[in-house]
Specification:
The complex is a heterodimer of chains A (272) and B (604).
Chain A (H helix, E strand, L loop, with lengths): L2 H4 L18 H10 L4 E4 L6 H12 L3 E5 L6 H5 E6 L2 E6 L1 H8 L2 E5 L6 H4 L3 H4 L4 E4 L4 E4 L5 E6 L12 H4 L3 E4 L5 H12 L3 H15 L2 H4 L6 H12 L4 H13 L3 H15 L2
Parallel strand pairs in A: 1-8, 1-9, 2-5, 5-8
Antiparallel strand pairs in A: 3-4, 6-7
Helix pairs in contact in A: 9-10, 9-12, 10-12, 10-14, 12-13, 13-14
Chain B lengths: L1 H17 L7 E2 H14 L7 E4 L3 E2 L6 H6 L4 E2 L3 E2 L3 E4 L2 E2 L5 H17 L7 H15 L1 H17 L8 H15 L45 H17 L12 H13 L8 H17 L5 H9 L16 E6 L4 E12 L14 H12 L4 E8 L4 E2 L1 H10 L8 E7 L3 E8 L14 H19 L2 E9 L5 E7 L7 H8 L9 H13 L5 E8 L11 H17 L2 E7 L8 H5 L4 E3 L6 H13 L1
Parallel strand pairs in B: 2-6, 9-15, 13-14, 13-16, 16-17, 17-18
Antiparallel strand pairs in B: 1-7, 3-4, 5-6, 8-9, 10-12, 11-12, 14-15
Helix pairs in contact in B: 2-4, 4-5, 4-6, 5-6, 9-11, 10-11, 12-14, 14-19, 16-17
The chains are: A alpha/beta (272), B alpha/beta (604).
Bound molecules: adenosine-5'-triphosphate (ATP) and magnesium ion.
Pfam family, one (chain A): AAA_5
Keywords (chain A): ATP-binding, Nucleotide-binding
InterPro entries (chain A): ATPase_dyneun-rel_AAA (IPR011704), CbbQ/NirQ/NorQ/GpvN (IPR050764), CbbQ_C (IPR013615), P-loop_NTPase (IPR027417)
Chain lengths: 272, 604
């Protein structure tokens, strides 16, 4: 995987991705930014973590370098590596180094997926030293005030063998994300998908009904993303029951017994 | 011939009379899972199970036909209590299957929302109906159909006496326009039952849903009594352990406990506090079992010095320490572990009822099998690793020559010891047919099936205890044994006995698992309650000792995790295991199928 394909710089002045706040997260994030503190965002899937970071980056006018972490990600995927061309070898910065050099926001998504030895490169960056040593070139970069490190993860899964080390997590200002309150979520669904407010409201009712079965019947509660997806199908002319099955129910479980039962809930709301 | 006609006629009457449509019947079993999920989705309590409710005597006027046929006096209605969502075992009230099925879902929804359960019947039901029809358009639509069908089913107003007719009018109005009727006009008889509403609290003598509570209740029909008994047993098992003492036993068990207590009272030194505690627990049980002469039997044991406080070190092969939180000391050699090999269990195959799960698990766990892993920067291999090679060129250094890629199988290097609580409390009933021990047995089976697919190393042990001198450790499967019919035979033979000296069992399991060489070592505890034993090992003492044993296990590099079916476990497990290291299974009957998945999740 090339470095450029995992890093994405969003630099569209004037176009801020819409984000509907559910609490003080915008203010806290801004204060963290001004005080050069790194931020950790935790919350269930599809609750707006990525959207929030994109929104904040645009709002603060910083470039955003996003890295989706996985267990094959190495420190050099973050920091950089030597490449080769006709004239020989040359060094190229990884997304983390780029963000430090240019004073951007580096966003590590699903950070618990990364191996522990990968996350240690963050340590010196995320305390008050704010430095990034590059072993391969012998360079030591000092982060400018505009640089910010943001990581996110989903604490929902109980997992014995993975988790953030306390020494890592205590370096971050932490924001816990949950699902927005019903009226607000309906607003989000309506604006994101273009569906009418009444349908948006029904979809959110459905989402909340399904969420209350989550720790019992489902591995994970349906996020706003699924609801927005269903809404988009409906806005495009799809029958609501069909849309809910395709965009929500079948995404939540593979077990026929469960999906059948989930459809009963769909019918309780979209039946006719 | 005449007889034949007679029977046919009787049947016909019966059918007409009861207004039944057997061809359109829907059984609870076919919809219970869906109804339960809908119930939870609409805010119903996660802890309750779906149950086929008992019939309610309605006492309304029966038609001549009904009187002729002697039927239709009892009717199935829905209600929910602390243990169960009670739904009719079968619904055949309406001529269309879809209506009968919708009625199940409607009732489940009604039980879930019930916003004002303390209002009188009429107001309460109208409030619940309104909540649903306003919040859930799909249910509102089906309610419209159900109301029409229900009204068509109800006795014609023209045939009723004036007072009853007025009452019936009110009910119909409330059905058609929920919220519109303030009170039910008085009549000499209760109204004809409304299938779309929750069961009324029977007005007569403040009778409760469980009429079996009063000691001298006259016996009802035999079958009703039977199922009552079952439910009653379940109730006992779900009664919370008040003061950290005994778990609740079935009456039969109490007898054996009583006997047991009699022979175990030699030790003199009694600690008043512990004794008082034990007495408390006995009271709870005596009240709970306030029937026949069990209470009397128990009161005898109250005089016995059950508590035991002597610290004489024991000698024996496997002696384990125990933590005394009052003195903050780890007392050496305080517990004797007796390993019980279970050699005489008859080998057997996997029980038939688990075969389907076995297939499913094989499929699911196939995915966890070792995968190929690409190893970077190897001294040799079948591909060039560009990255270190370029680094090599960039630095013009000859030293580093590890620039090959190699493929290797990644083995899951994992050892898991599963420790199952086999104390007497596991004899409690979790439903109509199964006890906790049966659920644990099935769980052990399915767990083993799943792990033998992953090829993770695992061992199975069970434990119970009878004071500190006899902590019984049952070997079901060691790490070295294969999972085969011999092991299945042992799993099959487990049965509940005595108490739960958890700390000692964990220490012993820690020793065994600690000897395994694996990168990750998981100690999985399967239980249904708190630590406790027949001496001072209960309440805080047992909890603190277990906690200490777990801290020691963690220091050895083991990962302890607890799976419990005790619904009250959130009160003490966070303290013992740590917040993220346990899970409460709300429906014990789901433990067998959930345990393997949980394992997969924990070790993915
Ligand atoms: N507060 C919000 N404001 C606007 N849109 C939102 C909000 N929350 C969620 N969304 C919508 O939900 C979608 C999913 O959100 P996002 O991708 O940010 O989730 P996430 O929390 O990053 O999930 P994951 O953990 O799976 O990456 C967004 O594309 C957006 O449409
Ligand atoms: Mg995201």
């Amino acid at each position: 995987m090339s470095v450029t394909s995992i890093a994405r710089a969003v630099r569209v002045p004037g176009l801020i991705p819409p984000y509907t706040p559910t609490g003080d997260e915008i203010a806290v994030f801004e204060l963290a930014y001004r005080n050069r503190l790194p931020v950790l965002i935790k919350g269930p899937t599809g609750c707006g973590k990525t959207r929030f970071v994109e929104h904040m980056a645009a709002r603060l006018g910083r470039a955003l370098y996003t890295v989706s972490c996985h267990d094959d990600l190495s420190a050099s995927d973050l920091v950089g590596r030597h490449l080769i061309d006709a004239s020989g070898t040359y060094w190229t910065d990884g997304p983390l180094t780029q963000a430090v050099r240019h004073g951007g926001i580096c966003y590590l998504d699903e950070v618990v997926e990364a191996r522990k030895d990968t996350t240690v490169v963050l340590h010196a960056l995320s305390d008050d030293r704010r430095i990034l040593p590059i072993d391969r070139t012998g360079e030591i970069l000092e982060a400018p005030p505009e640089f910010m490190l943001v990581v996110s993860y989903n604490p929902g899964y109980q997992h014995l063998l993975k988790g953030l080390k306390p020494s890592t997590r205590q370096r971050f200002v932490s924001l816990a994300f949950g699902f927005p309150e019903a009226a607000r979520e309906a607003e989000i669904v309506a604006t994101e998908s273009g569906v009418d407010p009444a349908t948006a409201k029904r979809l959110v009712t459905l989402a909340n009904a399904l969420r209350s079965t989550a720790d019992h019947d489902l591995e994970e509660a349906p996020g706003t993303r699924l609801i927005v997806d269903a809404a988009k199908l409906i806005a495009g002319g799809c029958d609501p029951q069909v849309a809910c099955r395709a965009a929500i129910v079948e995404c939540l479980s593979d077990e026929p017994e469960i999906t059948r039962a989930l459809m009963v809930v769909v019918l309780a709301i979209f039946g006719n | 011939m005449e007889e034949q006609v007679g029977i046919a006629w009787h049947r016909l009457i019966n059918r007409l009379a009861a207004r039944r449509f057997p061809e359109a019947a829907v059984e609870l079993a076919s919809v219970s899972r869906d109804a339960a999920l809908l119930f939870r989705a609409l805010g119903g309590d996660h802890g309750v199970a779906v149950q086929a409710g008992a019939q309610t005597l309605h006492g309304a006027r029966r038609s001549l036909l009904e009187r002729l046929a002697g039927s239709a006096r009892k009717v199935d209605l829905a209600w929910v209590d602390r243990q169960a969502l009670q739904l009719p075992p079968l619904i055949d009230a309406f001529p269309a299957t879809s209506l009968n099925r919708d009625l199940y879902f409607w009732l489940a929804a009604l039980c879930a929302v019930d916003p004002q359960p303390h209002l009188p019947w009429l107001a309460r039901n109208q409030a619940a109906v309104l909540t649903i029809t306003r919040g859930y358009p799909g249910l509102a639509a089906s309610y419209g159909r159900l109301v029409e069908a229900e009204i068509a089913r109800r006795p014609p107003i023209s045939k009723l006496a004036p007072d009853e007719a007025q009452q019936e009018q009110a009910i119909r109005a409330a059905l058609r326009k929920p919220g519109s009727v303030a009170a039910l006009p008085a009549a000499r008889r209760p109204p004809h039952p409304v299938l779309l509403w929750l069961r009324p609290e029977l007005p007569a003598k403040g009778k409760k849903p469980h009429p079996d509570k009063s000691p001298d209740q006259p016996s009802q029909a035999a079958s009703a009594l039977q199922s009552d008994k079952k439910r009653r047993l379940a109730e006992h098992t779900e009664m919370p352990e008040r003061k950290g003492g005994l778990l609740i036993f079935r009456p039969e068990s109490i007898f054996s406990w009583t006997e047991y207590a009699k022979v175990e009272h030699e030790t003199k030194e009694n600690e008043d506090q512990d004794l008082a505690q034990a007495a408390d627990d006995l009271d709870v049980i005596a009240i709970a079992q306030d029937r026949r002469n069990i209470a009397k039997k128990l009161s005898m044991t109250l005089d016995l010095p059950v508590a035991e406080g002597d610290d004489t070190p024991l000698d024996g092969n496997r002696m384990l320490p125990e933590w005394d939180y009052r003195t903050h000391t780890l007392k050496a050699d305080r517990c004797r572990v007796n390993t019980i090999p279970l050699t005489d269990a008859k080998p057997c195959a996997l029980p038939e009822h688990l075969k389907r799960d076995q297939q499913r698990l094989r499929r699911q766990f196939g995915a966890l099998l070792p995968v190929r892993l690409r190893l970077k920067a190897q001294p040799e291999g079948n591909d060039i690793d560009i990255d270190p090679y370029i680094r090599h060129l960039a630095h013009n250094a000859g030293a580093e020559t590890r620039f090959y890629l190699d493929q290797r199988k990644r083995e899951r290097d994992l050892a898991c010891l599963l420790l199952a609580d086999l104390s007497l409390s596991t004899e409690a009933w979790v439903g109509e047919e199964r006890r906790v021990i049966d659920v644990i047995r099935d769980s052990l089976f399915l767990f083993s099936e799943a792990l033998s697919v992953t090829r993770d190393r695992f061992a199975l042990y069970g434990f119970s205890s009878q004071q500190r001198t006899d902590v019984r450790f049952h070997t079901l499967k060691t790490f070295n044994e294969p999972y085969d019919d011999t092991v299945r035979g042992r799993i099959n033979s487990i049965s509940p006995a005595y108490y739960t000296r958890m700390g000692a069992a964990i220490r012993h399991a820690t020793e065994i698992l600690g000897r395994q060489k694996a990168r990750e070592r998981l100690l999985l505890l399967l239980t249904d309650g708190k630590p406790n034993d027949a001496d001072l090992y209960e309440g805080r003492y047992g909890i603190e000792d277990t906690r200490k044993a777990l801290i020691a296990a963690r220091q050895q590099g083991l990962r302890p995790f607890c799976v419990t079916v005790d619904q009250e476990a959130h009160e003490y497990l966070p303290h013992i295991f740590g917040k993220n290291n346990f899970i409460i299974i709300h429906k014990p009957s789901e433990l067998p199928s959930r345990l393997p998945l949980l394992y997969a999740q924990l070790t993915r």
